């Protein structure tokens, strides 16, 4: 699952990002109004952590834009402003929740998980295709009801393929979804091939009735065998 953290205070932003990464979320961040809008227009997210006070504009304007464009994403407002008026305005504009600074990081993660579950309409969300089933929240993956071990990136890759099971996904979209902003540190994208190869091997060894196929000139697609 992919989360965008919009926060201008670098130390707090880094703490939030590091904490959420430990819960196996893919994290991207923006430190100002302009870059935040750019990322929202270019990528899809399950949840956005949104500060109100930003360089170049207000987080409330970003919230208003998101809801006006009917972008389907959960939004948690974080702000040093702890007035009833700010909460009311944010919730009226369509925020899912509001958390005042300072806050415990454990409460932040709990609020985010709650937002994602509520928007999914299921407290135990799973994704299935063929004889495989995945639980993103608990990081579990089963084939024919038996647990299969996947590392963090393998799990994120397969999750992306499963939520896009009826679509051909291109390599760049896949990489940006799984690696987020960290992709800027890579010299090239060749590593994606070995990661996909590992996932395919584990699926085959476990007897999965699905496979990941390359679609020449376009990308990849998850199929049932």
SSE layout:
Blueprint: E1 2-6, H1 10-22, E2 26-30, H2 33-42, E3 47-51, E4 53-54, E5 57-58, H3 59-68, E6 74-79, H4 84-92, E7 97-100, H5 105-120, E8 127-129, E9 132-135, E10 140-143, E11 146-147, H6 152-163, H7 171-179, H8 191-205, E12 210-215, E13 219-224
Parallel strand pairs: 1-2, 1-3, 3-6, 6-7
Antiparallel strand pairs: 4-5, 8-9, 9-10, 10-11, 12-13
Task: Please describe what this structure looks like.
By secondary structure, the protein is an alpha/beta fold. The protein has two domains: 2-120, Rossmann fold (3-Layer(aba) Sandwich), CATH 3.40.50.2300; 127-224, Arc Repressor Mutant, subunit A (Orthogonal Bundle). The chain is 42% helix and 24% strand. The protein contains eight helices and 13 strands. It has helices at residues 10-22, 33-42, 59-68, 84-92, 105-120, 152-163, 171-179, 191-205, and strands at residues 2-6, 26-30, 47-51, 53-54, 57-58, 74-79, 97-100, 127-129, 132-135, 140-143, 146-147, 210-215, 219-224. It has a five-stranded parallel β-sheet, sandwiched between helices. A hairpin with a 2-residue loop joins strand 8 (127-129) and strand 9. Helix 6 (152-163) crosses helix 8 (191-205). It is elongated. 31% of the residues are buried. The mean pLDDT is 88.
